[in-house]
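Possible race condition, two jobs.
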Amino acid sequence: MTIKRIHSGGPFEEKIGYCRAVVAGGFVHIAGTVCGFDEDAGTETTDVAVQTKGILKIIGSALAEAGVGFEDIVRVNYYLPDRAEFEACWPQLREAFGANPPAATMIECGLIDPRFRIEIEVTALAG
């Protein structure tokens, strides 16, 4: 079996010892992804909706490098330290998944840094 590892160059990959995505066994497994940066404003943010937008961009880049897209995602897990913030993410998620919504789970839990308000991990079919 061929395994392809996709690195984003993010600081946690080397510190913790993981990569952004792994393509193996007919699937693309994308690691839990966070983003505390507002690209439009050029600043850090704790706004969950803005973080979701950044996370989806990072995930989209990993999917593209794996040769697939959001329409190929079959499973998504959302992790939030405050479940009350999840609804603010729904518009970005609907836009990203469109007519191809995956199976989904939302879990309320602590994240690696309190500035992160959401973490998203996905599994997609490999092309």
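Job #2 (started ~2 s after job #1):
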Amino acid sequence: MTQEQCPHRNNVQSTEKPQVYKVGIYGWRKRCLYFLVLLLMILIVVNLALTIWILKVMNFTIDGMGHLRITERGLKLEGDSEFLQPLYAKEIQSRPGSPLFLQSSKNVSVNILNEKKQLVSQLVAGSHGVHARGKMLEVKSSAGKLLFSADDNEVVVGAERLRVMGAEGAVFSNSVETPHVRAEPFKELR
């Protein structure tokens, strides 16, 4: 369409300069955008600094964290450690030649569960004493000889000599069978 065909168009010649429109953000919008970018940069720097500080304080290395090292046999924990929740492990042992200390403000409990998660045996060492619960209790010497055994049916004392040190001696409510009874040397047998 030519100019002659458009009657509504202004017949002003283009002697004026064409208007240039500015593209972009100006004024308070630009200041808010710069402020937001600056705030994000500060947050990123603070986050990075805190992450590096946590890594340094927790002593993270390629081998593990702090006193906890990852080895081919499992986890190795060096030094004193505190567990706030129950500890589940297949095996716990100390370094060769060093004792293993278990310390608690209340008690130390060792529970043995079967495959159905039912309690089979239990050992509780607390301030009131040591309590053991299970089907059988055995005490053996370092050579492997049975010293004491107890189950629901009988109690066996496997030592070569049984000595009763109480002031009242030994009291039996039923019969006693023994191949040999003797008193201490130069003491009378009653």
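The first helix runs from residue 28 to 57.
Logs attached separately.
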